[in-house]
Structure formats: C-alpha cells, structure tokens
Design a protein that fits this description.
alpha+beta; FAD/NAD(P)-binding domain; 7 domains; eight-stranded mixed β-sheet; six-stranded mixed β-sheet; 24 helices
Length: 970
C-alpha cells in the first residue's frame, strides 16, 4: 500500500482527514476523495438498489454514466457520488432500499422479471378499470429513485455567470489542452471546460510513456502551461449541459470548499467551439454484468492512481482494447493480483503489451469473453467463454474489469446538430456533417496515439481561431501535415455481447433493461433504436445514454444484420443531471440602477421600488398618492428620472426601410428636428411598443422605446429584416444615456437660465428635437408632453447625468423645483389619457383597441409592415376589449388597478385608476367589451373589499384634463 500512498498521480491529501456518515455509520477518508471513492476505500461495495428488481448496484464507472452510485447526500436525492467531492460531516444514504442495504426485502422482484417484459406498463393495471385506483398508489410509490421530504429546503449557495469568449474548448484532456493553447497563441480568448476536478483527461492517471516520460507527467506539464496562460480561462469540475447552433454552451460547475458557491450555472457565448470530450468505455454485455465488483478499466485504474485504492485483491480482465491490457499491467505493478486477461479480439493487440503480460506471468486468452458473474452482493466467481460459446473457464475473484471497447462522448456534437454515422473501422459513431464553427478533436474521432491526439487538438484550436478571424491559414496547413504524418484512427472492437441468452444481461442499468427486453421489443415490431428506447425505457434514466447509448443501436444493428445502417438515439440537453437550484441561481435581486439612482435614493422621503429590471423612485414622501408632487408639476416645476427609457440610434443606407418595416406609421415623414410618436405591432396586430423617432441626419435616426421593451427592440428589428440583406446598424444607447424630464409651467424659465441656446416657444416648439449644451454638457433635447404640461426631456451621456441633475436642481430652486416619482407621473399622464403599454394593454390588445389607429398608415403595403394584415382584418372586429376612460359615480371612491368590470359575467377590467387632482375627481382607464365602450355607458366594478357592493362608473371621453392640450404647447 505504500506504493499507492506515494503515487505522483494522487489527488487526495492523506494529511487532511475527513469523515462522513453512510447508513448510520461514520467512514473516514481524505480531502480530494469523492463520496464514491471514500466509501469504496472503506470496503463499501453495494451503494444502492436498482429501480425495478432491487438488485445490488456498485461502483462501475467514475464519471456518473449511470445511477449505480446516485445517493441521497445531505437530504438531496439522486446526487452522483462519483462526481461529488466528499466534505467533512456529510450525511449520505442509499436509495431504493427496502430494509437493509445488504439484504433488500424487495429483492424477490428479481425473480419476477419474467412478469415484467418490455412495455408491460403499457398493458397492465388498467383492466379491469376498478383496480386502477389501487394500482396507481402502488406504482407511484415504487416508481422513481430517491425521496424528497415535503418540507425540504435546498441547502447550499448557487450562482450563475454569462461569459463571452472567442473559443470554447469542451474537455481538458490532451486534445483540449492543445486546442486551447493553439487558439490562445493565435491571440484568441479561450474558455476551457473540464468535468473532472483536475485537467489532463486520460493522460492524468496513465503510466504509459510518451516522448520519454509517463503520460501523467505530460498531462501535468500541459495543465500548468494552460492554467498560466492569461488568455485561457479554466473551469474545472464543470460538466457541459448543452451546445447550441449560435455558439452557446451551457455548463454546471461544482464548487470546492474555497469557492463562494456549491454549484454554478455557466452560459457561454463563443465564436467557435472545440469538442474534445474524449471517450468512455462501452460496457460489455454478459449475464449479471452490473453486479458489484464489475467495473470498467478506467474506473479500476483511476481508483488506484487518483485515490490510492486498489479495486480488489484478485481480478479477471475481460476487455476489447489495448487500454484494458495497459490497465492490467499497471494494476499488477501496483500490487493487485491479475488472474488472467481475456480479449474479445483475435488479433491486433500491441506486441509490447502482450510481452508485458508474459513478463508478469499473466495468462492471456484471445477471443475469450466474460459470460457470467456469480456472487451475492458482489462478484465471487467469473465465467469466461470463447466468443462462440464453445469453451468455458471459471475463476474465483472479487473484481471483474470488463470493457467491450471505447466509445466517444459525442453528446455535444449531436446537440450542435452534427449528423452521426457508424464507422466500420473504429466502431464509433462519428460526425458525418459538422455544425458551423464546431470542431472535434482527440479520441472522440477514434484517434488513440498520444501524439496524434495532441496534433488533432492543435489543428482544431487553429480552425476555431480562424472562425474568429485569426489569420492562421499557414499554421493550419502545417498542423494538417503533422497530423497526417501520425497514426490515424485506430481499429476498434465491434464486439457487443457474450454468447448468453440475455435474461439478466443489462443494457441499461438505470432502468433494469435487459438484452431480452430489447429482443422482446424487436419481436413486437419496434425495429429502430429510437422506438426501442421508448418502449423499453433504456437510456431514459439519470445516466441518459451513458451506458446504453452505444450498445443499444449496435445490438439492434447486429440483430437486424445491418450494423452500419443503424443510427444512435437522439441526444437531448441536459447532457448530465443538474439540480434545479443551480438553474435558479443565487436568488440575487438582479436589478439595474439608473445614473441618477444615488441622488434619488438620498432625497428625503424617497421610496425606491423594483420596477421591472430597474430600481426607481416611486415617490418622495409618505403620501402614497403623491399629491404634493402632482400639484407641484401642475402649478410649478418638477424633475423626473426617465433614464430607463429605451434609446437607440439606427443608421445606414437602409435605416428608413427598417423603420418602415417595424413601425405602423409612415416613417418617411419623419423630418429632421421634429419628433414623431408611433408604435410597433406584432404579426397579430397587437401593439407591443410605442415611442418617438427623430431624424438627426441623412439615413440617421434616434428613437426611444418603452422601458419594458428596451432590451428587445434591436432584436425585433433584426429579426424582421433578417432575410432582406439591408445595410444598417442599430446601436443600443439605453445604458449609455441618462434622461431627465423637466416638466411644469415654469420648466422653460428654469431651462432659460442654464441652456446655451434659445429655448423660446418659437425656437423650440412642441414635438421638436434639438441638440444644444447646458453649461457645457451636450444634450439631446426633446419637447414632449407625457405628463400634460410644458415638458422637456434631456438625453445626456450617463457620466454627465448627475451633474446636469444638480445644475437643473440649483437653477430651479427659486421656482420651488422638486423631484417627482413614478406614482405622480402615472396620475399626471392618466389625466391626459396617455397610455403605458402593459398597463393599458395586454398581449391580445390591438392598435385599434387602445385608440391608436390614427398612427397606422394604410398606404405602406410595399414595406410589409409587421402586423399590417392583421390590423386591416381586426379594424372593425366585434367582441373585443376596448380602452375607455371612466369616472366614478361615488366621487370619494377610487377602484383598485385590476378590479373586474362585471354584470352577470366578467366584462373587462380596470387598467389604471387614480384621484385626478386636475380633474378634481376619481378617473381611470379600463379595457371593456366593445358594447360597453360608447360614451355615456355605465358599468359596474367589483372589488373584494366592498362586501358585495358594486362600484358604479360611467364611460367618458378622454383626456380628463386640458382637453385642448394648450398647457403642453404654452
């Protein structure tokens, strides 16, 4: 054991002891242990029980390809113990156990497997119908793995980040490391994702030599070089969840004790992707192939070299690749007794490896395979047979290392829409058509020679850099030549199944699906892997396609005598299980602050509230109606922070065409120096945004959007012009500019004191746009009237906004200037009948419904205005909700926003209602059925606090205040 404790490949700290509780007992391990390695170190061989048959399940792989070692950890069910680092004090429990872990009282289900053929759940329990209510309770209790307490609260800290990069490399093995270095050397920023806690991939624990040094030493050199490179950002212990056509990659990172999170969701936008995800081992199919003590070759080697634990005392190897022989030699050198190595291949083995077996006196059997294991809760005996089933031998042992061969981890390629086809030479499913800007590298292509793996990584990294604009054409040609001079894809094993009947030969461990079940599905006419997967449930468990993903289509192909024609089953995100809590993130209040947030929040009486994504001032006093603020704007002058408005510049030779496409008005009538109010509709004619547009130069426009649409306006324009080939640029200036609204009868008097230009009514009339400076601060100024008074909007660079606010505040002091917030603004604009989309509209509301039909220019058909057809069809449509103004019969009552308009049924609802200080009584706007929308109509409003009494209202014309609009134009 001293040899194991001093291995240079160890990732544990024997000087830092930890302990956890498993099934009521404490077990000791070391920092760096996973939960699975710690338990295995302490002699635990049975980790849980299988789904249907309650068979014992143990450690099979070490990357979570199946549910064998999913445990309940600290109250959280279905945690992959193989991928979870052990922490001191953990509480761990086995799952799906009835009684004791070693003796499960539901184990008799294994004897009843004959009663549960493939698809039995589609046919059983529903006839006669009277048994279903009883059966459903039993089925629900038996179904699924893990138990979650009803009052459970998810522990831990969760985070999320959204980085951008030029090149994203999936996999931190040798191919991925070389790809990252090549892209970084070309000047590209790189993000590298590695699912294990350390870089190096398969090189990290292998003792085979390359370029005169062990592969693990080579991995350490490369890993150090990558982690020191300033252009490469490394995320370890990070599993890829999905890849998408637009360069998006999603991943989940598990944190260590020094991290500020337990799990972190990562969403990356990359210019190009390198898939260097490597290979796993394809399970060998034989009777009782999932019994504890059966494991893959990499699992056995990693146990010894990464965690210092020998897999057992005496082992039999049944393999189909040279790597299996390499592992047998390595474990023999580390002190494990290897009884024999059976290789399904008749030829093709590396002579040096065979010489190593001879030197160590390890028997070698060509064309032999494990056909059965025996034992109670772990392997005690292994039967080997020839691949034809003519001869048999038995060995007493506690470990069977079994692997049919290698299989690529091609999930990221498939999610990126690569077309996978079976390759007869490698025995792999390989990409026939690759997605744009995605490049595979390394053993995923069937390349097994270390030098070839590294060369393929370099080539893929350079190609990814070229996708991002790097001039590396000559380097790519050199890399191609080097790769071509090295060994290409290796011949792989195509062997699938030992010569057995398959009743207890499991093709999917998660769902207890056997080869016999697959044969039953085939006999019933399900002749495609995709259909068989659904009928038998193979590959639908927590491990997804990790165990059956390659064997299922191969078995189907062999059975149908057309292995080369069979396609793999579909891959879907997430590629690995991920907790919902990690997707939810840290629960931070993710909000935005305007450039004026600090002075607003510091104002006496300020009440700051979350409004959409922004934190804004609702009011500046304890009066929830904000009467003083309203009256000050009506009679004097006030200031509002309107920085949340969407602000955009669109320019280019086809800019006008874009505006014509998305806005309902004739935008060719927009002239320089004037503002035009207009709206956008969707394809159904439903109004989705409004704003003002001005022309600031030839083919150059400045426009505003509502706060809630600011984030999507540019995408809306791009989406609706994506096939036209128009030349234009749109720049989102929402965060680049702050906005101050100066409003009230004395607004011009304040502005005249500070503006460096003439702002008289003649020089700067209503609905005009001007650019001038205020004490040296450049402003884009608009004269608008949203609150119904003389009003100016000053759009200034964000860094100047606080300075301008202070200038206006000081200039307006003699006029009694004061802040006003959103509550006052809402009442002021309500009295003028000005709507806010989202308050006075909903997703089904058309332009006609809210009284904005006058904005629609019907003569713009040649521009294919979005929503024009629907607007024409719905112009005279009956039975719709129409926006109306109303006043209350009881002048002391103001209905709540959202109150229902009713008679014998619901006829609409109140959008906004306030006490109108200008109108002198309660006023509001409501969406009501069109037969109630005529002026003078009466309707009733229901509120839950009126004890069944209905409030009476009458439809009246709008606006409620300053009908002629003279105050805005004074």
């Amino acid at each position: 054991m001293d040899r194991l404790n001093n291995l240079p490949t160890l990732q544990i700290r024997p000087d830092a002891a930890i302990s956890l509780m498993f099934e009521g007992k404490y077990y000791r391990g070391w920092e760096g242990d996973t939960v699975a390695s710690l338990l295995y170190r302490n002699g635990i061989r049975v980790f849980g029980r299988s789904l249907k048959y309650h068979r014992p399940r143990g450690l099979y792989s070490l990357d979570g390809e199946c549910s064998n070692t999913t445990l309940q950890i600290d109250g959280v069910p279905n945690v992959r113990a193989e991928n979870t680092l052990a922490r001191d004090g953990m509480s761990v429990k086995a799952q799906n156990v009835c009684g004791m872990l070693e003796f499960d009282m539901m184990g008799f289900m294994d004897k009843l497997s004959w009663a549960m053929p493939a698809g039995f759940y589609y046919e059983a329990f529903h006839k006669p119908a009277r048994i279903w209510p009883k059966a459903i309770g039993i089925i629900r209790k038996a179904a699924g793995l893990g138990v979650l307490a009803p009052d459970f609260v998810m522990p831990g800290k969760y985070d999320e980040i959204f980085p951008n990069t030029d090149v994203c490399v999936l996999g931190g093995g040798p191919a991925g490391l070389f790809a990252a270095l090549a892209a970084a050397d070309a000047g590209m920023s790189v993000i590298l994702l590695e699912s294990r806690p350390a870089l190096g991939g398969s090189f990290a624990y292998r003792a085979a030599r390359y370029t005169g040094i062990p592969l693990y030493a080579r991995a350490a050199e490369l890993s150090a070089e990558v982690e020191c490179n300033p252009l490469i950002r490394v995320f370890k212990h990070t599993s890829v969840l999905g890849t998408y056509h637009n360069g998006s990659v999603t991943a989940m990172q598990r944190g260590g004790k020094e991290d500020a999170f337990d799990e972190r969701y990562i969403e990356i936008r990359a210019g190009s992707i390198v898939a260097a995800t490597g290979c796993t081992e394809r399970p060998l199919l034989f009777d009782n192939n999932e019994r504890p003590g059966v494991m893959q070759a990499a699992c056995a080697q990693r146990l010894a070299r990464t965690w210092g634990v020998l897999p057992g005392k005496e082992a039999v190897f049944s393999i189909g690749h040279d790597y299996g022989i390499e592992v047998a030699l390595d474990l023999a050198d580390l002190g494990m007794k290897i009884l024999c190595v059976a290789d399904v291949r008749e030829d093709g083995q590396d002579p040096e490896l065979l010489a190593g077996l001879t030197e160590r006196k390890i028997p070698f059997f060509r064309g032999w395979v494990a056909s059965e294991t025996k034992g109670w809760n772990s392997v005690s005996k292994v039967t080997l047979s020839t691949t034809g089933g003519f001869r048999h031998r038995q060995f007493d042992c506690d470990t069977l290392v079994a692997s049919a061969g290698l299989t690529p981890v091609w999930g990221p390629l498939a999610l990126g829409q690569a077309k996978m086809t079976y390759d007869l030479h490698t025995g792999f499913f390989l990409p026939k058509h690759l997605p744009d800007n995605m490049h595979p590298a390394g053993s995923i292509l069937g390349i097994l020679d270390p030098g070839s793996i590294e060369a393929s990584g370099t080539l893929a990294g350079l190609r990814a850099a070229a996708d991002c604009g790097a001039d590396v054409s000559s380097a790519i040609e050199s890399a191609k030549e080097k790769a071509a001079s090295l060994p290409g894809p290796a011949r792989g094993s195509k062997f699938v199944m030992a010569p057995v009947k398959g009743a207890k030969t499991f093709i999917c461990f998660d769902e207890d699906t056997t080869v016999k079940n697959v044969s039953q599905a085939l006999a019933r006419g399900f002749d495609m892997p995709e259909l068989i997967k659904r009928f038998t449930s193979a590959g639908t468990g927590p491990g997804q396609g990790g165990i059956p993903g390659h064997n299922l289509p191969l078995y189907v192909g062999i059975t149908r005598d057309c292995p080369a024609e069979v396609k793999p089953t579909s891959i879907r995100a997430p590629l690995v299980p991920a907790s919902i809590a990690a997707f939810a993130g840290s629960n931070h209040d993710m909000s935005k602050h305007t450039p004026l947030h600090e002075p607003q929040a510091a104002t006496t009486g300020a009440v700051m509230e979350r409004v959409g994504v922004w934190v804004r001032a609702r009011r500046f006093s304890g009066d929830k109606l904000s009467r003083a603020e309203i009256e000050n704007v009506r009679n004097n002058v006030g200031m509002l922070d309107a920085s949340t408005l969407g602000k955009f510049r669109i320019h280019g030779p086809d800019a006008l065409k874009v505006l014509q496409r998305v806005y309902v008005s004739d935008m060719s009538k927009v002239v320089q120096g004037r503002m035009r109010y207009t709206a956008m509709c969707n394809e159904d004619g439903c109004v989705i945004d409004d704003g003002v547009v001005t022309k600031i130069a030839e083919n150059d426009y400045y426009l505003t959007a509502s706060t809630v649409r600011a984030g999507v306006t540019a995408e809306w324009m791009r989406y609706h012009t994506r096939y036209d080939g128009w030349k234009y640029h749109i720049v989102n200036l929402t965060d680049a500019y702050g906005v101050i609204n100066l409003a009230g009868p004395n607004a011009r008097k304040v502005l005249e004191k500070i503006a460096d230009t003439d702002v008289s009514n003649e020089a700067f009339p209503f609905s005009c746009y001007r650019e001038f400076t205020i004490q040296g601060i450049p402003t884009r100024s608009m004269r608008l009237g949203f609150v119904g008074e003389l009003s100016y909007e000053f759009h200034v660079p964000s860094s100047y906004t606080q300075a301008l606010w202070k200038i206006i505040e000081e200039a307006g002091a003699e006029f009694g200037i004061r802040n006003f917030g959103l509550e006052a603004q809402s009442t002021l604009r309500l009295e003028k009948g000005h709507i806010i989309l989202g308050s006075e509209s909903e997703q089904r509301t058309t332009l006609h419904d809210v009284g904005l039909s006058f904005l629609w220019d019907r003569n713009k058909a040649e521009w294919k205005t979005v929503g024009a057809v629907a607007l024409e069809q719905t112009e005279k449509q009956k039975g719709r909700l129409k926006l109306v103004g109303f006043k209350m019969e009881d002048k002391t009552t103001v209905p709540k926003d959202g109150s229902l308009v009713v008679d014998s049924r619901i006829r609409g609802y109140v959008c906004t209602a306030r006490h109108g200080y200008g109108a002198g009584e309660p006023v509001g706007m409501a969406l009501v059925e069109d037969e109630l929308a005529t002026h003078g109509s009466n309707f009733a409003i229901f509120e839950d606090n009126c004890e069944g009494r209905l409030l009476q209202a009458r439809v009246v014309p709008m606006p409620f205040y300053d009908v002629e609009g003279s105050r805005m134009k004074m």
